[in-house]
Amino acid sequence: MAIKKTIKPEKTVEKKAVADKKAAPKKTVKKVAAAPAPVISAVTERYVYAVGRRKTAVAQVRLYPSKDATPAVVNKRPIREYFGTEALEVVALAPLSASGLSEAFMVSVVVRGGGLHGQAGAIRLGVARCLIKHDPLLRATLKALGFLTRDPRMVERKKPGLKKARRSPQWAKR
Q1: What is the helix, strand, coil percentage profile of the chain, to 5?
Q2: How many CB atoms lie within 10 A of CB 65?
Q3: Does residue 37 surpass a pLDDT of 50?
Q4: pLDDT tens readout for residues 74-104
Q5: Could you give the CA distance from residue 127 to residue 62 in angstroms, rounded to a whole number?
Q6: CA angle 44, 48, 49 (to 5 degrees)
Q7: Which of 3.30.230.10, 3.40.50.450, 1.10.3210.10, 3.40.920.10 is the CATH number of 43-144?
Q8: Which of 2, 54, 137, 157 could form a cystine bridge with 122, CB 3.0-4.6 A?
Q9: Distances in Å between the alpha carbon of 20 and those of 10, 29, 165, 171?
Q10: Model's pTM, two decimal places?
Q11: Domain spans in the chain, listed from the N-terminal domain onward
Q12: Looking at the DSSP assignment, which residues form a beta bridge with residue 74?
């Protein structure tokens, strides 16, 4: 048995192509999206701003570009005078020293709430976030050192009917 192949005449193909051309819309104008705004370094601004939190302390940190090494200011006092110890000053300014930019910025902080250790941790997070805004390439370094992690631990609230957050009143048999 022979298989018959039917060949369509070329006229039908041409007619189909002509029909497709008619169905196709005429010229479409593509709308070109506006070019993204150029990235301007945050240093061209007056300062870089970020908020850091730790326990119940909240620190509003501003990094001002500076040519000379000026001490950080916390609540309008030098950082050494505010914290009283060098250890807390080192904790607060650790992201600057880790990135090697301690001489490039003057730090101004307004911090409220919590104790001194919580405030130092809040300043550390705020400074790290400011550095990320200044230079996004520092993110990997600061993340590896743990400076971008918000420590969520807080004191648990006292519940009604209990002596403390979880301590129940002492049970008496009589």
Answers
A1: 35, 15, 50
A2: 16
A3: no
A4: 999 999 999 999 999 999 999 999 998 888 8
A5: 8
A6: 155
A7: 3.30.230.10
A8: 54
A9: 15, 20, 76, 89
A10: 0.70
A11: 43-144
A12: 77, 109
